[in-house]
């Protein structure tokens, strides 16, 4: 047994050197570049990464390890970056040698639960086999549990997941994701599952200003430009869209931009101009958004 007394007093660990070796900072920097806002999420991911690094350093000195739980819960609305962050989390776990492959497998209930007796176990086990060595990301995980349906086989899938999460913790990390309120009820209904999920990360909705910036970055990535007048219209579009059903944050903004690009193309085609300038091809005008039903159906 290793004790503080039998560890040489001159044993030194260069934290910064070890941190640089893992290349974790590169992953965190990329997360900052890829995602606007989400400061609480980024802070939580840094905290988890720091805990895992220190745990690894303790092991290297022969100190006892708390075996930090790695299974996680990502809660929040659609389009808030949960899958993107899960991918980066898989990279961090791989760099710190907590998983040996580092890939992310994203699934839903349909990938895990069968339609008849004897169908669920093979489906779930096949998914787990594919995910081994990496991270299994289960989106809308609350759909796995349907207590009001006696003929539902989701409970069987959960039982298999629990066994693997407990017995093969060194081979697989599971991230459950979905709306916070529904996920809270899901965990309340499955105390065995809740006890195995130690890291809970909540993803806040983006503000209108953050969504505008996200939209601008999406347009820049596709080599489009917008004027200040267009920005004002887009911000108004965002405020109106946020009040509509099925709003999905960045996902909804991406869809709106795709429709604006379609209107721009149709506008150019309908103009009848035989000669087009580069500016014609890259400019998104206010009217390309103002033709949305959010402005026309008032």
Automatic annotation (TrEMBL):
It is found in: Plastid, Chloroplast. Transmembrane segments: none annotated. InterPro entries: AAA+_ATPase, AAA_lid_6, ATPase_AAA_core, CbxX/CfqX_mono, CbxX/CfxQ, CbxX/CfxQ_RuBisCO_ESX, P-loop_NTPase. Gene3D superfamilies: 1.10.8.60, P-loop containing nucleotide triphosphate hydrolases. One of its GO terms (molecular function) is ATP hydrolysis activity. Pfam families: AAA, AAA_lid_6. Keywords: ATP-binding, Chloroplast, Nucleotide-binding, Plastid. Residues 68-207 form the AAA+ ATPase domain. SMART domains: AAA (SM00382). Its main location: plastid. One of its GO terms (cellular component) is chloroplast. PANTHER family: AAA-TYPE ATPASE FAMILY PROTEIN / ANKYRIN REPEAT FAMILY PROTEIN (PTHR43392), AAA-TYPE ATPASE FAMILY PROTEIN _ ANKYRIN REPEAT FAMILY PROTEIN (PTHR43392:SF2). Belongs to the CbxX/CfxQ family. This is Putative rubisco expression protein. It comes from Porphyridium sordidum.
């Amino acid at each position: 047994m290793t004790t503080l007394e039998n560890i040489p007093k001159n044993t030194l660990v260069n934290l910064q050197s070890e941190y640089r070796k893992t290349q974790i900072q590169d992953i965190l920097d990329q997360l900052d570049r890829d995602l606007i806002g989400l400061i609480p999420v980024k802070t939580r991911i840094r905290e988890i990464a720091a805990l895992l690094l220190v745990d690894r350093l303790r092991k290297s000195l022969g100190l006892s390890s708390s075996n930090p739980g790695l299974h996680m819960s990502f809660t929040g609305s659609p389009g808030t970056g949960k899958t993107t962050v899960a991918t980066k989390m898989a990279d961090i776990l791989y760099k710190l040698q907590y998983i040996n492959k580092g890939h992310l497998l994203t699934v839903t209930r349909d990938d895990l639960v069968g339609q008849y007796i004897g169908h669920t176990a093979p489906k779930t086990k096949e998914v787990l086999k594919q995910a081994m060595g990496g991270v299994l990301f289960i989106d809308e995980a609350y759909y796995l549990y349907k207590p009001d349906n006696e003929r539902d086989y989701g409970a069987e899938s959960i039982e298999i997941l629990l066994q693997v999460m407990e017995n093969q913790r060194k081979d697989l990390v599971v991230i459950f994701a979905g709306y916070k309120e529904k996920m809270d009820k899901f965990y309340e209904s499955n105390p065995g599952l809740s006890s195995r999920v130690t890291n809970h990360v909540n993803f806040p909705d983006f503000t209108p200003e953050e969504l505008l910036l996200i939209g601008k970055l999406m347009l820049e990535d596709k080599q489009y430009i917008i004027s200040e007048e267009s920005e004002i219209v887009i911000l108004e579009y965002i405020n109106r869209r946020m009040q509509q059903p099925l709003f999905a944050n960045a996902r909804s903004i991406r869809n709106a931009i795709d429709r604006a690009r379609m209107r721009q193309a149709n506008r150019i085609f309908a103009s009848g101009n035989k000669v087009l300038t580069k500016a014609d091809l890259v400019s998104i005008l206010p009217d390309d958004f103002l033709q949305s039903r959010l402005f026309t159906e008032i």
